[in-house]
Amino acid sequence: MNARLGRALTLGSLLSFPAAGHGRTVATLAAGTLVGLSVSALLLVAGGYPLGAALSSLWSGAFGGFAEGLDTLRDATPLFLVALATIVSYRAQLWNVGQEGQLVLGAIFCYGATLLAAGLPQPLPWLLPLCAGVAGGALWSTPPALARVRWGVNEIVSTMMFNYIAVFLLMYLVGHVWPESSATYLQTAPIGAPAHLPAWNAEGTLNAQFLIAAVVALALAVLFGRSVLGFEILSFGLNARTSAFKGIAAGATCLKVFAISGGIAGLCGAVMLLGTQWRLAPATLASGVGYSGIMVAMLGRLHPAGALLAALLFGALNTGSAAMQLEAGVPSTMARVMQAVLLISFLLAQAINQAQPAKRGRDA
Fold it and tell me: Span of the secretion signal (predicted)?
């Protein structure tokens, strides 16, 4: 049994999305989610918190009204974008875990571009920084990709190291190049209003970030469903050696995958800056969105629809946790614990689901 679970727990097998009609698979995943929520409820009870009040405040804080729903979408959108970036690289069996750093570099490039684009006619004050964010994330993903292609350096190690470099670079730039002299915290001056993403309400919470995320998701659907590059990426991910016999250059494909994945992560950083934060601040920008987005992609099994649902779930936990703390006294960090429990339960459900067919095949 342990050997079967070990084979089932390989990363590639856990991240394959079930085909439509696999009722047993879907039921197993639903059971895993239910177990995760049940364990989270038990943790709340064990901590001495009122379960009913905690869950009620969590729901009302995430979906209690139009404003709360927008807050949930606001928190879910960056997670969804990072998940899309993860989907691109992981479908190619390239384990990019540098989304946090690529997001940060995207925001840095974006902020610099807002300074250069100030005074230009609309939509350039926000469109050019948005493009700069994509470029920043793509460029930051290039050195690990080159190291993988040229010297076979493990991309998990290299992209993780680049995350730390990106955060320290952000702190240096905010503290020494773009500091806000009157600020108590380490942050830059806010960007000008013309650089804000177009919004459809006075608070700016209903803005173009949702539309941008939808466009990226549709673009990836076209990429993987109707393009030669998408076929090359999927073929490379299924079997890099076999794809070489089809004329698919492994090195070039690797560089393209990292550029697309890093570009989407950089776009996420730009969207966060232009749509919700409006200034560079390490405490809020480098807050773990890149890592949480990877979890969202895994929960969604590398499928955009699944990633969207997982992002909404994580966004609801993030938004509702503030209400849980105020109304039920539950620490806001409990949301992180609940996210981790859900992920572990989900992965165990995947492992059990994939171990059972192997057992039946040997018993037959």
Answer: none
The CATH class of the 65-349 domain is mainly alpha
Contacts of 134 (CB under 8 A, 6+ apart): 106, 263, 264, 266, 267, 270
Q: What is the pTM of this model?
A: 0.89
**Encoding tokens for residue 75?**
């928190």
Count Cα neighbours of 50 within 13 Å in the Cβ-side half-sphere: 10
Split at pLDDT 50, 70, 90, the class of 3 is very low
Question: Which of 29, 86, 83 minimizes the C-alpha distance to 348?
Answer: 29
Could you tell me the sign of the dihedral formed by the alpha carbons of 37, 42, 43, 44, in that order?
Answer: positive
Owner of token pair 């993988």? 148
Let me know the angle formed at the C-alpha of 164 by 160 and 166, rounded to the nearest 5 degrees: 110
Tell me the domain boundaries of the chain: 65-349
For tokens 């076979």, what's the residue?
152
Q: Average pLDDT, stretch 83-92?
A: 96
